[in-house]
Amino acid sequence: MAVENIWFLCLLSLGYCGLSVQVPSASPQLSLLSTSPTDIRAMWLPMSPQLSRGAITRYRIDYRALEQVDHIYSVEVGGNETQVILRDLKPNQTYQLRIAAGTRAGFSQSSEWASHHTPNLTQVLFAPAELKVRAKMHSLHVTWQPPPNHTQITGYKLSWQELDGEEQPNEEKPLINERIQQIKLRKRVKHHEVTDLAPDQLYEVKVWAFNKQTEGYPAVWKGRTEKLTRVRTTDSLPPLPPISVRARANSSTSIWLHWEKPHFSNVRIINYTIRCSPAGIRNASLVSYYTSSSQEILLESLKPFTSYEIAVQSNGVDMSGPFSSTVEESTLPDRPSSPPLDMQLSALDSYSVLVIWRPPLEPNGVILTYWILYTGNISHPDHLWINLTHDGSVNSAEVQGLMSGTRYYFKMGACTEVGVGPYSPVKDVYTPPKKYGCVLSFILQGLYCVSVVTI
Question: What CA–CA distance (Å, rounded) separates 455 from 437?
Answer without folding.
Answer: 28
